[in-house]
Amino acid sequence: MDLLVLDNDATFGATMEAALVDVDVSVVHSWPQLRLKFDALAVNQRPIVVCSSEVDLGRCMEWNPRLLVIFWAQQLPSSVDVLRLMQMGVRDIWLPSESANDWAVRLQWLNKLNAMVDAISGDSQRDIQTARVIQQSMWPQDEAVLSGYKFSRRLLPAAMLSGDFVDYFAVGARYLIFFMADVAGHGVSPALLTAALKNISWRLQQRYGRPRFRTPAQMLEWINARVIDQSVDLHVAMFLGVIDLQTHTLHYASAAHFPPSLRVSDAGEVTSLEQRGKPLGLFAGATYESAEVDLRLGERVVVFSDGILEQRQTLDLATREQALKDQAVNADDIEGLWSYATANVSGEDDVSLLMVERLS
Question: pLDDT, tens digit, for every residue of 225-249?
Answer without folding.
Answer: 988 887 677 889 999 999 999 999 9
